[in-house]
Amino acid sequence: TELFTGEVKNQLIKHKDIFNKFHSFGYQMASYKGLLLNQAYVLYSPVSNLQNNSVWEVKLDAPSSCGPQIMINHKTGMEEIFAQDIENKIYLISNTGKILWKKVIDGQIKGKVYQIDYFQNNKLQYVFNTAKAIYIIDRNGNEVTGFPLALNKRATNGLSVFDYENNRDYRFVLCDADNKIRIFKSNGKEVEGFEFSGTHDSVNIPLKWERINFKDYLLALDQSGNLYGVGRKGESRLKFEEKLPIKNFNYCVEYGKDIDKLLHILKFLPYNLEG
Fold this sequence. Notes:
Blueprint: H1 6-14, H2 16-19, E1 22-32, E2 35-44, E3 69-72, E4 79-84, E5 89-93, E6 99-104, E7 110-116, E8 125-129, E9 133-137, E10 149-150, E11 160-162, E12 171-175, E13 181-185, E14 208-212, E15 215-221, E16 227-230, E17 236-239, E18 249-254, E19 265-270
């Protein structure tokens, strides 16, 4: 029910006993030869089984605001959990359910939390953004010097982290309220020479990066369904005549026979469902 609002959410709660008997549900749409193909899968059992099979549980200071993310402890190689609550507090939780640290940040995390080797010494840090800033935090909960990096304009999407040459010289890419693509170096300085006129509408999902025939392509999708393909300097490298039909969604790329058909097939799924 957390994905829905309004009357849809109320109906789900009202008939909770019935919906608890649906074990899984999947839905997929794809465009093919001018058609919009739909496929649904539902698994239903008349016997509801709500027993608690959790190995451990941990109580946050406030309700969780998003799904927990699995992180790697660079010292032990074991998995840990990164979480945030509705009061903007973030947590690192061990694989035994112990809260290792918690701290308040300036807002809700947009998008996912990445792990990077910021100091290039095989130790991992957490990088993410809110609408106001980019954060890099080490495993002990301490902010890396120079961060959080305050943004001049409100970020509209979650951060993308690219390592073009696989040498840990990271680029942090996001879009702002002026419909501009902003690219920052690892040291927090904005990349010079990136000239892009901007998107027609706000971009609410992270940018993607593809390397094809030794050329880099940043792919952006705005809320009106416009697709953009630009190079590292902001130059337009791909132009798309068609728009995607819905506003809030994610997408993946399948290559065609040549670069002109880079997005020959688009598969997409709901990204933000509202009643």
